[in-house]
Write a structure and sequence with these properties.
It is built from 22 helices and 23 strands. The protein has 747 residues and is an alpha/beta fold. The chain has 4 domains: 144 residues; 144 residues, Toll/interleukin-1 receptor homology (TIR) domain (Rossmann fold, 3-Layer(aba) Sandwich), CATH 3.40.50; 67 residues; 272 residues, no CATH class. The chain has a 7-stranded mixed beta sheet with strand order 21-20-19-18-17-22-23, with helices on both faces. Strands 8-7-9-10-11 form a 5-stranded parallel beta sheet, sandwiched between helices. Strands 4-3-5-6 form a 4-stranded parallel beta sheet, sandwiched between helices. α14 packs parallel to α15, α14 packs parallel to α22 and α19 runs parallel beside α21.
Length: 747
């Protein structure tokens, strides 16, 4: 059996890494993470975490299954966009994207799962705003042309949007096939401006990119991204006319090209040469528009040294307006400017003497997304209210310019100030620089600078790192056939798994994972999260108990894996984890033992089942709690579905189980067996007898090991009901684990 206290002596000999010998238990070791703040401020506990607020915006992508070929790629692009890095820093999934296409029932042409819109009752509070993007295709046109479930859904949705237009936002995009040629779609949407409508006179643009930009603009405007200038987003084109004699033509062509591209979008444009009129006080006009517009900086060779260029940037930043820098340096700058830092930056490129259009379009997309993020952030601040305990909801990570401006505008006699800004956290060096600035105040100020995740990872004022010294097991599979009927897909499940792993790491905990090493599997996802949010070990003698991630492979799994893949995974883990390979009975062996490069798969079903059971037993001994999501109910190898067997072993060991039942699969079956509320999904496939037998064994084990009453979160409990919001699910698990860990310390 594996002993956690052992170091890395069993690893294959390698060259020494350049890792510095720093304590492995300091979360500040990862340069992406600032040192964790103290949980009390002179007796004042940390602010209440606002991450459990409902999302500001729930976005539904709605299409008929017969339009799947055209609609699904665009809908998936929306998930990737709004659940990607750009929006991941907001609280609790400020914007959530889910699907409505596959039928909820078993009858022919069944309508999809019902939408939950603002004002609807349910086990979870709805979002403050609900947006529905209808993909208008020939399949939908035929389905609504006659009475039936799909016509009822569309009619009810249109009626709802008509009666509550401020909270229910209905938008549409047309697919190929002229869907508006027939009623009732023509009557419902014929007079409406559609998203991503191609302009035959404009250069062709990727439709998914156009859809994301148009939709972000429409949503930002609907959510009043700027109360001082409501309506259409206006781009302030910040540029200089100064250039070296040989570069003036290139500069003029660049600025003219940017103006032309903006002119082919739905965005407004402030360009001084067009807006300033004879007799205007140009300084006042520039200041007023910089204070109310989204600023696109064209950073050319002489931009940073121009006083009014600096003034425009400073005005936008201090007022929290979106700023994006398009870097078009051709030679060099004589000096830079710190005012241009702490803003998204994209590089303009050339093909020969011509400036490329694609980077400009990307910059505009990022700038529009920044406007939507600003709207979402302000709505979340309003929903949280003063009881959240946050002094400044900074729309961007604070910097000396914005910090000093805010402190001057909001004087206070209190010496402690709490600042919350979107993820990612500031680095330790950045935080120290801001603390030094605050220390110059009279009297000096103490800053606590948090992000949604660092705040969510400190659920108790008693615990600095509540999960320090605790290793959590992850059990997951995204091979869940009913995800589509639930309005989800594999992306949502992977997002939830990544978010749970992230918060465990920020809580100071570590992870154990037993899976496989397929490129499209879940192991690469966990490796990425560990490298971004985990602490690295201090060298080859780091105890396994201190490493953020243990990847444990069953005999049947690693023998079927090429040796080069095992070696690559071991190298990728580096000082962040350890690759552990087991023999048939669960004992650790060197992964290179008695084999060469070629896979040596195990073919005997009995041997495969025994090796998988040995893996699950070993994982239980390495962990103190288990998180579960998804899981196969059909087509599994082994004696029972892997997650069911792991649940039985966890109950035998008296370990807490946290079940993300809303994503379906084996986890939902486990939750239902343990008496937890789960969506009653209509049955469409025959039951697997081995699944039912293993669930009966789980029920028997649960009767033998009832929950201990002193634990505030019993080991058989989970977040109640289905929960399709990955960020909320992860936060529920994080808070439950924090309460459980705190209860262990107070016994």
């Amino acid at each position: 059996m594996i002993k956690e206290k052992e170091g890395l002596g069993g690893h294959r000999p390698k060259k020494k890494s350049g890792a510095s010998p720093i304590s492995a238990k300091r979360i500040a070791q990862n340069p992406l993470i600032a040192s964790p703040p103290s949980n009390t401020l002179s007796g004042r506990t940390l602010p209440r975490s606002p991450v459990m607020l409902p999302p500001v915006l729930e976005l539904y992508a709605l299409w008929h299954p017969r339009d799947d070929r055209q609609a699904r790629p665009l809908a998936e692009a929306l998930v990737d966009h709004y659940h990607g890095d750009l929006f991941s820093g907001l609280i609790g999934g400020a914007i959530e994207v889910c699907f409505r296409s596959e039928g909820w029932g078993n009858e022919a042409d069944s309508a999809p799962r019902p939408l939950v819109l603002p004002g609807d009752a349910g086990p979870l509070p709805p979002a403050a705003y609900g947006a529905v993007l209808c993909f208008l295709g020939p399949g939908l046109a035929r389905a609504v042309a006659q009475p039936g479930p799909w016509r009822d859904v569309l009619q009810a949705l249109i009626t709802r949007a008509h009666h509550d237009p401020n909270r229910v936002i209905l938008r549409a995009v047309a697919l190929e096939g002229d869907p508006l040629a027939r009623e009732p779609l023509r009557g419902w949407f014929g007079a409406t401006q559609l998203l991503a409508s191609p302009d035959p006179l404009a250069p062709k643009e990727d439709r998914a990119d156009t859809l994301c930009r148009d939709l972000s603009q429409s949503l930002a405007q609907a959510l009043t991204w700027n109360a001082q200038a409501p309506g259409r987003i206006q781009i302030f084109l910040s540029h200089t006319k100064h250039a070296a004699p040989g570069e003036r033509e290139s500069l003029a062509a660049f600025v003219a090209g940017v103006r032309r591209i903006i002119g082919n979008t739905r965005l407004g444009l402030f360009f001084d040469a067009n807006v300033l009129q004879p007799g205007d006080d140009w300084a006042q006009v520039l200041e007023r528009h910089a204070a109310t517009s989204a600023l696109l900086v064209l950073r050319t060779d002489h931009y940073a040294e121009r006083l009014w260029c600096q003034q425009e940037v400073a005005t936008a930043k201090t007022l929290g307006m979106p700023v994006v820098v398009l870097d078009a340096l051709e030679r060099s700058e004589s000096r830079g400017s710190f005012l241009l830092d702490h803003a998204p930056r994209l590089r303009a490129t050339k093909t020969g003497p011509r400036w490329d259009e694609a980077p400009v379009r990307r910059a505009l997309g990022v700038l529009v997304d920044e406007c939507l993020k600003r709207a979402l952030w302000h709505h979340q601040a309003a929903l949280a209210g003063p009881e959240a305990g946050v002094d400044w909801w900074a729309p961007h990570a604070p910097e000396p310019l914005t910090l000093t401006h805010w402190l001057n505008k909001h004087p206070s006699s209190r010496g402690q100030r709490v600042i919350l800004h979107p993820d990612p956290p500031l680095t330790q060096r950045e935080t120290e620089a801001l603390e030094a600035v605050a220390g110059l105040a009279k009297p000096p100020l103490t800053l606590t600078i948090l992000t949604p995740r660092t705040l969510a990872a400190r659920p108790s004022s008693l615990d600095r790192l509540p999960l320090e010294g605790k290793r959590l097991g992850l059990s997951a599979s995204d091979q869940v056939p009913d995800l589509g009927r639930r309005g989800l897909d594999r992306r949502h499940l992977r997002l939830a798994l990544a978010e749970m792993a992230r918060l465990v790491l920020l809580d100071g905990g570590t992870l154990a994972w037993g899976g496989h090493l397929e490129p499209e599997g879940l192991t690469p996802l966990l490796l990425e999260e560990v490298r971004r949010y985990g602490h690295s070990g201090s060298g080859q003698n780091t105890p396994a108990s201190d490493l953020p991630l243990l990847v444990v492979l069953a005999w049947s799994v690693h023998r079927a894996t090429p040796l080069s893949v095992l070696e690559a995974t071991d190298a990728q883990l580096g000082s962040f984890g350890r690759l552990i390979c087991l023999n048939r009975t669960g004992e650790e062996i060197p992964f290179w033992s008695e084999r060469d490069e070629a896979p040596q798969p195990v073919s005997d079903p009995q041997s495969i089942a025994e090796s998988l059971s040995a893996l699950r037993t070993t994982l239980t001994t390495l962990t103190c709690a288990r998180l579960m999501i998804g899981g196969r109910c059909q087509g599994f190898t082994g004696r029972a579905p892997g997650l069911v067997e792991e649940a039985i072993l966890s109950l035998k060991a008296g370990q807490p189980l946290y079940l993300a039942a809303g994503f379906g699969g084996a986890t939902a079956e486990i939750a239902r067996t343990l008496g937890l509320p789960v969506d009653a999904l209509p049955q469409t496939a025959p039951r697997n007898p081995r699944l039912d037998a293993s669930l009966a064994a789980l029920a028997d084990q649960a009767r033998l090991t009832p929950p201990r009453p002193q634990r505030p979160v019993p080991r058989r409990s989970s977040p109640p009901g289905p929960h399709p919001r990955p960020s909320h699910l992860a936060t529920l698990v994080s808070q439950g684990l924090g309460r459980w860990a705190s209860s262990l310390k107070t016994r």
